[in-house]
Amino acid sequence: xxxxxxxxxxxxxxxxxxxxxxxxxxxxxxxxxxxxxxxxxxxxxxxxxxxxxxxxxxxxxxxxxxxxxxxxxxxxxxxxxxxxxxxxxxxxxxxxxxxxxxxxxxxxxxxxxxxxxxxxxxxxxxxxxxxxxxxxxxxxxxxxxxxxxxxxxxxxxxxxxxxxxxxxxxxxxxxxxxxxxxxxxxxxxxxxxxxxxxxxxxxxxxxxxxxxxxxxxxxxxxxxxxxxxxxxxxxxxxxxxxxxxxxxxxxxxxxxxxxxxxxxxxxxxxxxxxxxxxxxxxxxxxxxxxxxxxxxxxxxxxxxxxxxxxxxxxxxxxxxxxxxxxxxxxxxxxxxxxxxxxxxxxxxxxxxxxxxxxxxxxxxxxxxxxxxxxxxxxxxxxxxxxxxxxxxxxxxxxxxxxxxxxxxxxxxxxxxxxxxxxxxxxxxxxxxxxxxxxxxxxxxxxxxxxxxxxxxxxxxxxxxxxxxxxxxxxxxxxxxxxxxxxxxxxxxxxxxxxxxxxxxxxxxxxxxxxxxxxxxxxxxxxxxxxxxxxxxxxxxxxxxxxxxxxxxxxxxxxxxxxxxxxxxxxxxxxxxxxxxxxxxxxxxxxxxxxxxxxxxxxxxxxxxxxxxxxxxxxxxxxxxxxxxxxxxxxxxxxxxxxxxxxx
Length: 647
Fold this sequence. Notes:
Radius of gyration: 30 Å
Number of domains: 3
Shape: globular
Organism: Lymnaea stagnalis
Structural class: alpha+beta
Largest sheet: 6 strands, antiparallel
Keywords: Coiled coil, Nucleus, Repeat, WD repeat
Subcellular location: Nucleus
Main location: nucleus
Pfam families: TLE_N, WD40
Number of strands: 32
CATH topology of the largest domain: Methylamine Dehydrogenase, Chain H
CATH class of the largest domain: Mainly Beta
Number of helices: 10
Strand order of the largest sheet: 4-3-25-24-23-22
């Protein structure tokens, strides 16, 4: 009947030719492709994780290799000097003793590889290495007769002393000859060039190196050199921020580029620090910042934390402990949280991002008005005012206050309780007081101090007095009505970095780059207490309820101190320096932000983690609204973020 029609399916050769059957076949093929896509996606994610882990191991081994190389230079120089001393002392001995000592010295120089291997094996057995990680696959073959790299824990102790710099310390008696100094300097310079040439860089760090040499200046000169994790004697301090103060230059504290540099947000982070000291090139910065780190991994930047977590094992429930109670005698125990740690009146459940304020420069300071309507963001040279009552992320600022020179960063902004006056401090010797009540905001007064920079501000509860943390370590006390300097608290031996005042206005707390936190009696004008730490202090906050002071440190710890008792809490969720900290006005919780891109919310005082939020870049500043319903953060990717707190 239809001679030209395609013959139907033969037996054993089914063929779907109706529309419904064709759709079914398309659906089956789509399902098959979707399953394949899902499988490939899982494999891709697995490969990305493996790549991250390999990158992390590579960074660790690179750091160890460089540290051990410098240690070798140091030990060689020590041996050379000791040999010179022996040569000078031997002639004073009798002839018989001279021959014996000379023979003994020659025998001491004859060290075979078998003896070295035996010594290394004995040291590793003696240490037992209870929580050392087995070394991953070596990156390159090892020469015949040499041992593979020593595991991280055993080798870390070998070059802890290099946390203050990459070069060996000069002799205390200064007996190194000019020729030796020149030779050592040339050798270390060659090692530095070789290290930079061989280091792979991420896109961000390669951009930094191709544009100019300024990123290195920021890392090594603009950023204060962190003091080592272990206390050092006062005789071996590192030239760092204090040197800048003595020469009358402001310190680029503690995470910002030197003013005048034009850098992308990826270049603003300080050098990551580890238990063995700073990673001294762009490889480390790119390697640790380009890949997110899982919550618990084999290699962590702060090795002491891993040891502590393994020593104290875990809290009930099997999760690694991150909050520890430290008694007056130094005993540390994981904190068992009470059942109501994360519930109850005033305790939030989480925070939801509701707005992004694109400031255009790194946001070093933020504050929120009361009632919550305006947000003030401080960046390079100016403060921008935003109306957050209007929804939407693309709303422009309603005002811009040009406070400092264009290349100088603003470090702190404080709004008086009446909402009509704003005080701004930063990389300048002058504080500016702005009248916000006028039709156009204007400067109504300026307060000038002898210090080249102001790092933090605090306002007394009655809004009559302003306190400024100066880069020379002094705390300036200003009368806001008469606009005069009425007093200076002197005690910090390095820049004063953070400040807070008690709710009754009688006590002031300050933290400094000299590793101390100090309290001051404002009625008597004297220092009350001093707390010494092994790390620089970057942020602090005093609980509105009293009793507790939270301190954020360069070492990544948050410590919660009691104002009168020796007991304290140590919190270990940050993976890098803690840059800002703020208590909620109810006093039941507080937040901290860090160079690790994290915003953490903690329960007062024992530090149960309420919620955590990760941003794309380092979070430099934070504030909480007076009703505790909103959080604002400022970050290195040139924006501020507004969160709604959900109860």
